[in-house]
Amino acid sequence: MLVKTKSMGAVEVDNAHIITIPAGLFGFEEYTQYALIDSEYKPFMWLQSTQSSELAFLVVDPFLICSDYEVDIDDKELLKIGIVSPTEVFVLVLITIPQDGSAVTANLQGPLVINRTNNKAMQAILSDNRWTTKHSIIESLKKRSS
Fold first, then answer.
1. Which has the minimum average pLDDT: 49-63, 90-104, 105-119?
2. Could you give the C-alpha distances from 127 to 67, 71, 74, 124, in angstroms and in order?
3. For 16-56, what is each residue's pLDDT tens digit?
4. Which of 40, 45, 126, 138 has the fewest CB atoms within 10 Å, i.e. is most exposed?
5. Is residue 121 within 8 Å of residue 19, measured between CB atoms?
């Protein structure tokens, strides 16, 4: 599938990397189809809307930045996207890069949960108060290296 992107022009994306988020992301509910595209900044990826070239989010596997991260979601919620086994789950979190140069953060409270088998996804809201919407990536990486 040819996807028009915000930062890289038109990019050919394998259908295996097209995901559907039936309820959309919070604040962007009308956009339900996205492409996962490798970023020039590994291990980050772009979650690029296929419906609007102007809508893209930088995402990352949260376990790379926070080794004790836990995603506890009710099984009934996961059934909405067809997940019946933990092996079907792939988790990403949205990254915020502030314009003012302040800390780059990850939204660990609202992870994107993807079903590997059918490419359906949902954005969950975790109730565990350890996870915030503004988790400092640099601070996490410093803790991991010490």
1. 90-104
2. 19, 10, 11, 10
3. 999 999 999 999 999 999 999 999 989 999 999 999 999 99
4. 40
5. yes
Name residue, tokens 């996207």: 81
The average pLDDT across 1-30 equals 95
Tell me what the mean pLDDT of segment 62-70 comes to: 92
- How many residues does the structure list for the chain? 146
Are 93 and 111 contacting, i.e. CB atoms less than 8 angstroms apart?
Answer: yes
Torsion 106-107-113-119 (CA) sign = negative
Express the helix, strand and coil content of the chain in percent, nearest 5 each: 15, 30, 50
Token look-up 């979601």 returns 73
Helix (H, G, I), strand (E, B) or coil at 25: strand
Residue 133 predicted with pLDDT over 90: yes
Bond into 43 cis (ω within 30): yes
Kindly report the number of other CB atoms within 10 A of residue 47's CB atom.
Answer: 21
Taking alpha carbons only, the member of 69, 65, 79 closest to residue 131 is 69
Among 120, 143, 40, 55, smallest CA distance to 94 is for 55
